[in-house]
Amino acid sequence: MEIKGTSAYTSASKIAQDDEKQKEQELAQEKETAQISKDENDTAEFSRTDFDEADVEEKARNYLQNILIGNLTEESQALIEQYLAEFDVAKFIRMYGPFTSASEISAAMYAATAGLIKYQEEE
């Protein structure tokens, strides 16, 4: 009795090879797409919704003025006033920007001034 199953084996083998080739092509395409996406993400573009220096300076000064209203220690108040007087908006934008909302500016101001703020203890 002779078993003739070579054609079934050959067909299964061909399907497996085709599947493997298809997977390789998909992986290559995914890598190419990922590289294109990475290249696109590496460029910084400023949209029309970004705040300009005047807007950032206004929001930053307002933030600091609101802090000065609080119950700060004298030392802390002096440090905040000094920071306000020496505030360099261009440097601030380079370090923390670009900004697309006032909340982003406030968060950056908090990060920049958190060490300067100390409130008087309630008695």
Extended strand count: 0
Counted by DSSP, the helix tally is 5
Q: What is the N-to-C succession of helices and strands?
A: HHHHH
What separation lies between the terminal Cα atoms? 103 Å
* Strand content bin: under 5%
User: Roughly what is the average pLDDT, rounded to an integer?
Assistant: 78
- Structural classification: mainly alpha
Describe what this molecule looks like in 3D.
It is a single chain. By secondary structure, the chain is mainly α. The chain has helices at 6-41, 53-69, 74-85, 89-96, 102-113. Helix 2 (53-69) crosses helix 5 (102-113). The N and C termini lie far apart (103 Å). The model has no long low-confidence stretch (mean pLDDT 78).
Question: Could you give the topology of this structure?
Answer:
Layout lengths: L5 H36 L11 H17 L4 H12 L3 H8 L5 H12 L10
Helix pairs in contact: 2-3, 2-5
Key words describing this protein structure:
mainly alpha, 123 residues, single chain
Brief description of this entry?
The protein is 69% helix and 0% strand.
